[in-house]
Amino acid sequence: MAILDLQRSTNPTSDEQRAAALADPGFGRYYTDHMVLANYTEGSGWENPRIVPTTNFSLHPAASVLHYGQEIFEGLKAYRHDDDSIWLFRPERNAMRFVGSALRLQMAPLPEEIFLDSIMELVDAERAWVPENTGEQSLYIRPFQIADEPYLGVREAHKYLYAVLATPAGAYYPDPVKLWITPNYTRAAKGGTGTAKCGGNYAASLAAAAEAQDHGCGQVLYTDGAEHKWLEECGTMNFMMITRDDELLTPALGTILEGVTRDSILHLAAEHGLTPIQRPISIDELRDGLDSGYVTEAFACGTAAVITPIVGFNSPERGEETVGDGQPGARTQTLRQHLLDIQYGRAADRHGWLRRVG
Questions:
Q1: 157 contacts: CB under 8 Å, gap ≥ 6
Q2: Cβ neighbours of residue 350 closer than 8 Å, sequence gap 6 or more
Q3: CA-to-CA distance for 345 and 342, rounded, in angstroms?
């Protein structure tokens, strides 16, 4: 279903203002002139997908999202290539995951074709907001869905609002990070919402992130909620490590988010002489590997973060621990550059991951 209704803003950002924003976009500081909206009502389905001027929208104080947290979102990027064409990276995976998140939160799933069409048409309408491909800049796209039915009974809502915002973005983690292995918090548990991309997961992560900052770390590394023994993921990223035997190890799926970047790296691993392995990884295996040198590199990955080198860990039990020589690993850097080169059109897209806008 293509979006047929395009309502142009009568007060668009000037060329000068947009150029200033794109010169130093940060992350989530500026927003494009237009956004996507669509509505769902039980019995009628999804209706009226449209592009409208970006503005506030009103909610009844009893809107279900405000009381029971029925909310999901996605994150993906649009990239400008050297020939000025604009491309999305694996948006089909985001569309599939959006459906999965909706089902876990007992929300009406948005058809994947509406998800894809809405993003393609919004980015096409806002081409001027896609930054040049310098400094790892891109247009970050945030589709989300909320329950906007005013109802205070505890049940799934019968009305939903779908929206898409877009914001020019620079590098999210410009520097390598150290991770705090939290003894106090868990991100998810079997049967929980760890596999869904919902706001509640991120709200619950803020205390752990603050704890990490208090211990000189840029992010947190979670262990499982049952035994506090098995590695899961970081606060906003999936976790991976490289061994002396050329293995690329990452925790198995089940309670963690099925990251698009994570999946892409697993597909690229063989091209870099690495054997990708998804399996349970214990905290003791990580620590023993650091002590012996068997674990040679570690990194975190996600859409916003791309690949962020991990240079150390901190924990109450062991204190400061260093990965390798404390510098970003060579293979981590090579993998990172390869992924970016595909996204920006500098390397061949052998997997058919890119989708051209317009």
A1: 64, 65, 70, 107, 147, 148, 149, 151
A2: none
A3: 5
Is the pLDDT at 316 greater than 60? The verdict is yes
Q: Is the pLDDT of residue 306 over 90?
A: yes
Residue listed under structure tokens 């009893």: 62
What is the sign, positive or negative, of the torsion defined by CA atoms of 318, 308, 300, 104?
positive
What confidence category does residue 1 fall into, taking pLDDT thresholds of 50, 70 and 90? very low
pTM, 2 dp: 0.96
> What would the pLDDT profile of 207-223 be if each residue is shown by its tens digit?
999 999 999 999 999 99
Spatial CA neighbour of 48 closest among 40, 56, 59: 40
Cβ neighbours of 14 (radius 10 Å)? 9
Q: How far apart are CA 85 and CA 225, in angstroms?
A: 45
For 170, the token pair is 């620079």
CA-wise closest residue to 113 among 137, 99, 101, 95: 95
- Per-residue pLDDT, averaged over 321-326, amounts to 96
Tokens at 44, concatenated: 């009628």
